[in-house]
Design brief:
heterodimer; A: mainly alpha; two-stranded antiparallel ribbon; B: alpha/beta; six-stranded mixed sheet; four-stranded antiparallel sheet
Chain lengths: 386, 234
């Protein structure tokens, strides 16, 4: 199968010996395995929870990355699929309906049902592009949220704004994630259990994303993103591939949603508002659209940043002896400033793919030349004859 | 190979094509000439499937493809090189060529064809790592044709390949079209440059106001008074 040539610096193996690669892999594995212990010891138990959330949002952001980053379809209602997964789990594993279906059944079901919802959103929007698509997806996200909010009458499906409580925690092979377990002298608290479970699933999502990106399907998505009619002219079935992008992205969201429901033990429509969709989109754009490592970085930063900004309160007390500005007031401001700064100096994202980087560099060169009055493209047509 | 029967096309309330008949035989190079707004590009869009057909039929290898989506026509061996080239401006030359072979699964054949593209257009070989959007107009046209050839088409639909190009480059492009035709690829060429098109093609159609007013061997059209006056400026 022919592949797009991968520019240097984009492939993992770029200029590294097998030994160095092995050492790096071992180091990364050790870091990922020890992370909760280190974080707990250095920063406290609350940060292990943040670590769990980083994993959840990474899955979510990688799902949206398929739709926005790979296929170039701007989706502003992506959190709806997260909601679908979360409610599916909540309804099937809580006293609300008295159902207690097992986790191994609900996880694929959440992926499947969310995927179907993805196609449901994709089908009517196939002919829409850019801002029009964004408006429809935004509406779709709100429809799902409002539906969840109002479906407590005449038949109580979702329990309305109160949400669903007492969701059963995940059990893997009879081991409950919600309890601490002792392995020899080590005690593994609940937050650690979730960390390891989420880590495995996140790695799976990363793996699937990477395989998709370098597959025939991935190439077709890039073609659709760059020029839909040219993609069609190359023989790409744009309808099916756009639907596939929506479905794949949504199913990642569904998986993350079901994990979230069991992790929190509680879901309500409030958690699935437009701001959440925007947040996930920010992770994708800020990290580097279409670049898996960039998106992971974006998710990690945007989950930890608001938590880190909580320290502004104690910091003020230490500096000035009292709190002048409430941290909660400052958080959104600083968050916004951070976004503006990144987009100003790194418009392709913090860690863009080589392709994106190149595109933005080319766009900037064109703009600069237009300003100074030079023509781009080098030779005029007459000069290109041999 | 291609048989178009009483094809009607339009945009909204405007009728652009009032029912034309057109044939391209296997390995044949056929031209369609005409003034601006005669319906040349529209007819090609209809044949390629970019524009929905109002009435009439299109047969490709005896199969009715009138309502078939674009990618299915491409799968059957039809490729359009649209007006304005339709290349992926933000992908490199090599990536563009690679997308042209999207439907193919014979890696060895694709590699061989890639090498052939670079022999056919040495200019593209020099610029294979360059973004397609930064190429000159002539190079973009070469890329568009080379990309279409990467799909090993049996019928190539070329829409105004000389548009906006300097005479020297136009000659180069037309020479290439001639050599592609020599490899038994059927070609339907839409051209405003009537003389160049008639010198290249075996047969031609003259399109005027959405209907075919003249058709026949190029030599006959070249010597016809009506064509000489209207399109060759004599």
């Amino acid at each position: 199968m022919p592949r797009l040539p991968i520019p240097a610096g984009m492939s993992d193996a770029a200029g590294r010996s097998p030994l160095a690669q092995g050492a790096l892999l071992a180091l990364a594995t050790a870091a990922l395995l020890l992370a909760p212990f280190l974080v707990d010891a250095l920063l406290g138990r609350a940060w292990v929870r943040v670590l769990d959330l980083v994993m959840l949002y990474t899955m979510l952001a990688l799902g949206l990355n398929i739709v926005v980053g790979f296929a170039g379809l701007l989706d502003l209602g992506y959190i709806a699929f997260f909601a679908v997964g979360a409610y599916l789990y909540a309804l099937c594993a809580s006293p609300h309906f008295g159902l207690h279906l097992p986790f191994w059944l609900l996880l694929p079901a959440a992926a499947l049902v969310a995927g179907l919802f993805g196609m449901l959103l994709g089908a009517p929007t196939l002919k829409l592009r850019g801002d029009y698509l964004a408006i429809v997806t935004l509406g779709f996200g709100e429809i799902i949220r409002i539906f969840l909010n109002n479906m407590n009458a005449p038949f109580n499906l979702t329990n309305g704004p109160q949400g669903i409580t007492m969701i059963r925690p995940i059990e893997v092979a009879g081991v409950s994630m919600a309890k601490a377990h002792a392995i020899g002298p080590l005690s593994i608290p609940s937050l650690y259990n979730y960390y390891y479970l989420f880590l495995v699933l996140t790695l799976l999502v990363v793996f699937v994303s990477a395989r998709l990106q370098h597959s025939r399907v991935g190439r077709a998505w890039v073609a659709i993103r760059e020029d839909e009619s040219a993609a069609r002219a190359s023989g790409v079935n744009t309808r099916n591939l756009k639907l596939l992008a929506f479905a794949m992205g949504a199913s990642f969201g569904g998986i993350a949603g079901s994990l979230y429901a069991s992790f929190q033990g509680f879901v309500s429509p409030e958690s699935f508002g437009l701001m959440e969709s925007i947040m996930v989109l920010c992770m994708v754009v800020l990290g580097g659209m279409g670049h898996i490592r960039g998106v992971v970085l974006g998710a990690a930063l945007l989950v930890t940043l608001p938590e880190a900004l909580r320290y502004i309160g104690p910091l003020q007390r230490w500096l000035f002896g009292q709190v002048h500005i409430e941290p909660s007031d400052l958080r959104l401001l600083l968050f916004g400033v951070a976004l503006v700064v990144v987009m100003r100096w790194r418009p392709a994202g913090l860690w863009p793919s080589a392709i994106r980087h190149r595109e933005f560099a080319a766009a900037r060169a064109t703009a600069d030349n237009a300003v100074t009055g030079h023509r781009t493209g080098g030779s005029a047509d007459a000069g290109s004859a041999p | 190979m291609l048989a178009v029967r009483s094809l009607q096309l339009g945009y909204g309330a405007i009728v652009a094509l009032r029912g034309i008949d057109l044939d391209v035989g296997a390995g044949e190079l056929v031209a369609v000439i005409g003034a601006n707004g005669a319906g040349k590009t529209t007819s090609l869009k209809g044949i390629a499937g970019v524009l929905p057909v109002r009435a009439g039929s299109i047969l490709f290898d005896g199969e009715d493809i009138t309502r078939m989506p674009v990618h299915e026509r491409v799968r059957r061996g039809m490729r359009l090189v649209p007006e304005g080239r339709g290349i992926f401006a933000r992908l490199t030359v090599a990536e563009n060529l690679d997308m042209g072979a999207y439907l193919r699964r014979d890696a060895a054949g694709v590699r061989a064809d890639l090498a052939r593209s670079y022999t056919l257009f040495p200019r593209l070989a020099e610029r294979r790592r360059q973004l397609a959007g930064t190429l000159s107009g002539g190079e973009q046209q070469m890329l568009a044709i080379a990309r279409a050839l990467m799909g090993r088409p049996r019928l190539l639909l070329l829409d105004e390949p000389s548009m906006g190009l300097a005479p020297l480059v136009t000659r180069l492009i037309f020479d290439t079209i001639r050599s592609i035709s020599a490899e038994c690829v059927s070609i339907l060429l839409i051209e405003q440059n009537a003389r160049a098109a008639l010198e290249l093609a075996a047969r031609a159609y003259v399109l005027e106001g959405g209907t075919v007013t003249l058709a026949g061997p190029s030599a006959a059209l070249l010597s016809s008074d009506a064509v000489r006056r209207a399109y060759l400026g004599e």
